[in-house]
Amino acid sequence: MDDGWYRNNRTQPDRDQPWYRVLVHDSDAVTYAAQTSLLPDESEEKLRYVLVAHFFECADGSRHVRNTTPWPPQC
């Protein structure tokens, strides 16, 4: 993301680390998160996200298997 987006980020984690596009549980929102802000989900609760079938082929035990469908364009 650009410098303006980063400056508006409330937590301002180190910019020079991996950032991930994250599906927000129980929502249709997508956000960006720094690697240091991510924690494993140990709830064993089924993922609820509107586009989960768009991004994943199936669930394989404790993880979802990514398909080859590209992300929808972001505006």
How is the secondary structure organized here?
Blueprint lengths: L2 H6 L10 E5 L6 E5 L17 H4 E5 L2 E4 L9
Antiparallel strand pairs: 1-2, 3-4
Kindly give the count of domains.
1
Counted by DSSP, the helix tally is 2
Alpha-carbon Rg, integer: 14 Å
Average pLDDT across residues?
78
Order of helices and strands: HEEHEE
**Helix/strand-derived class?**
alpha+beta
The tally of beta strands, per DSSP, is 4
Q: Helical residue percent?
A: 10-25%
Low-confidence stretches: none
Distance between the termini: 13 Å
Question: Which word captures the global form?
Answer: globular
Largest sheet data:
2 strands, antiparallel
Strand fraction = 25-35%
Strand order of the largest sheet: 1-2
Description of the structure:
By secondary structure, the protein is of the alpha+beta class. It has one domain (3-66). Helix content is 13%, strand content 25%. The chain is built from two helices and four strands, in the order H-E-E-H-E-E. It has helices at 3-8, 52-55, and strands at residues 19-23, 30-34, 56-60, 63-66. The protein has a two-stranded antiparallel ribbon with strand order 1-2. A two-stranded antiparallel ribbon has the order 3-4. The longest helix has 6 residues, at 3-8. It is globular, with a radius of gyration of 14 Å. It starts with a helix and ends in a 9-residue tail after the last strand. 0% of the residues are buried.
